[in-house]
Amino acid sequence: MALNLTKEQLKQYDGKNGNKAYVAIDGTIYDVTDVDAWKDGAHHGHTAGKDLSDAIMTAPHKKSVLAKLPVVGKLV
Questions:
Q1: How many CB atoms lie within 10 A of CB 69?
Q2: Among 55, 11, 13, which residue's Cα sits nearest to residue 31?
Q3: Which spans in the chain are helix H?
Q4: Which residue of 3, 11, 18, 73 is most buried, as measured by CB atoms within 10 A?
Q5: In degrees, to the nearest 5, what angle opens at C-alpha 76 toward C-alphas 71 and 28?
Q6: Could you report the per-residue pLDDT of 45-67, keeping only the tens digit for each?
């Protein structure tokens, strides 16, 4: 089941206190919960539960990592 989440709703998926860790990139929401680099919902100064479309473009890997992540929905 694909989720449609607003930016406000996405905030609850911050990877803390047992919550899933989701990030949005270009309108697509990805699950980073099981990614070791996103332990506790944080990764290189970024936190889950946000739209990181701009931030990913400054990362060395750019969007190449997205193909490995489960898509859980759309940012609306």
A1: 19
A2: 13
A3: 7-10, 53-56
A4: 73
A5: 25
A6: 999 999 999 999 999 999 999 99
